[in-house]
Amino acid sequence: MTDLVETYRGGVIIQECDAFGHMNIAYYVGRFDDAAHELLHRVAPGARWRTQAVATSYLTELRAGDPVAIASGIIAVDAATLTVGHRATDGAGGKATTIAEQVLALDAPDGEAWAGLRDSVNAARVAWAEERFAPVALPDQAGPVAAGLSRVGTQEAGRDGRLSLFGFVDRFSTANLINMNQAGMTSTYMRAEKRGFATFETRMTLFPPTPAIGDALAIASGILELGNSSVKIVHEMRLAHAGRRVARFYQAGVHFDLEGRRSAPLPAALREGAKRQMFAPRA
Q1: DSSP letter string, the chain
Q2: Correct CATH for 1-134 of 3.40.50.970, 3.40.605.10, 3.10.129.10, 3.20.20.70
């Protein structure tokens, strides 16, 4: 076992912050994706990797001007994939601000290349002190809210010409604005009541092949669970014309007091609106 290694050091700029004053979740996942590729470049130079899933826990909100450092390491290896653990801090020895687990597979047509890399990958494994993400049960059907329809642009694509992790999460973040707006959390409400939304956990699963430049994407969203202040949501992305599912995104967050920077109870009207967008209870 080795130690986590630093794979990113930088900071948050104001252009990365959303209407609620903190860094948008797409920029977290984009940084973790870069961090994973920096780590794997050291472990297996020249190999190409594709992400299958990313789980992220947002422990402390990051705002414009905050420094960010990421330490990463391989925390699990199985027959076909490896998992990279990421720990983001302020870079000065402070507590973790964000934790993520990213599952990747070798982007190769057969298993021979993976078999040749497993020894070096296993030798680079680290001891992981963070609690692992437990599975979340999600409904099979899509949600009732049409929350996105757009086409993949060149600015959203990675080096392979396909939608980047940032592009996926950016779309799901916007889908949540539409989903919550339909429940009654409109821009007028948010400005008048000084309320917003703060995400504390996300899980994304990708179903290859991922969308390419020019593909049209549709997102359907629905609410899985309501708490006193919390809302758990599921977004599903499909190719708009072919109908094939390409990604699912679980998002858990809270109704957020923008002045106090803390969770706030859901008001009755918003709760009732959200109930109309909930998935049917499991049998």
Answers
A1: -B--EEEEEEE--GGGB-TTSSB-HHHHHHHHHHHHHHHHHHHSTT--EEEEEEEEEE-S---TT-EEEEEEEEEEE-SSEEEEEEEEE-SSS---SEEEEEEEEE--SSSHHHHHHHHHHHHTBB---SPPPPP----SSPPSEEEEEEE--GGGB-TTSBB-HHHHHHHHHHHHHHHHHHHT--HHHHHHHTEEEEEEEEEEEE-SSPPBTT-EEEEEEEEEEE-SSEEEEEEEEEETTT--EEEEEEEEEEEEETTTTEE-PPPHHHHHHHHTTBPPPP-
A2: 3.10.129.10
